Amino acid sequence: MDTVLNVERLWISPYVFACFVTLKEKGIPFRAQELDTNQNDTKDAGYLARTVTGRVPSLQHGELALSESSAIVEYLEEAHPEPNVLPRSLEQRARCRQLMSWLRSDETAPLREERPTTTMFYEKAQQSLSDKAQRAAEKLVAVSERLLGSGAPNLFEAWCIADSELAFMLHRLILNGDTVPAAIRRYAEAQWQRPSVQEFVKKHRPARVP
Predict the structure, then answer these.
(1) Which range of residues forms the domain containing residue 54?
(2) Rounded to whole angstroms, how far apart are CA atoms 203 and 207?
(3) Tens of pLDDT along 111-152?
(4) Which of 50, 96, 162, 195 could be 65's S-S partner, Cβ–Cβ 3.0 to 4.6 Å?
(5) CB 170 within 8 A of CB 155
């Protein structure tokens, strides 16, 4: 079955990241197709008809075209259960989904706005965090500490995709020199070294035109 992951051309989206890591962890061969939103590639009538919401990333898997990263991750988990990227335990899987939803929520929006992914892969942020973003950073750390306890290498018994997503969010702070407690920093940096994550991090990226 032919599998295509439609991505944004700079390869900096956390949502592309989640889908890319999931495909790599599951060992599913796929082709990446870069779309340029500045050229209205995602507004093409055919693309809109196939994906419904017309966003990236989107997955073309056989006859199915699906957008929204969390939906893509869950679809791939059900279509290709082994190896798993979501916890096997019902309770842990629910907690994993909770964290993934929260990382996409308005509570983390100030961090996404003031530490955008351009500051992770291109130029660093020039401004300190605002009070609102600092509060969001503090809550991110607090949530991480509640889930990880004292020095756990993963959120649950084994790695899951939420580990990579949480590490990505924490790296918005780490890569910009913002304060992150040592134990949480060690966790995030260890997760950042996972081969599937590093393959995304080390992707060739074109020059960015502001």
Answers:
(1) 3-83
(2) 13
(3) 999 999 999 999 999 999 999 999 999 999 999 999 998 789
(4) 50
(5) no
Query: In the predicted model, is pLDDT for residue 94 greater than 80?
Result: yes
Q: How far is CA 149 from CA 79, 92, 135, 152, 161, in A?
A: 33, 15, 21, 6, 19
Q: What pLDDT score was predicted for residue 210?
A: 61
pLDDT at position 162 is 98
Is residue 120 a part of any domain in this protein? yes
Instruction: State both tokens at 82.
Output: 């082994």
Overall domain count for the chain: 2
Residues 186 and 115 in one domain: yes
pTM of the complete model = 0.96
Q: Of 56, 83, 110, which residue is a domain's last?
A: 83
Same domain, 76 and 94: no
CATH number at residue 26: 3.40.30.10
Phi-psi region of 66 (alpha: psi -120 to 50; beta: other; left: phi over 0): beta
Residue 6 forms beta bridges with which residues? 33, 58
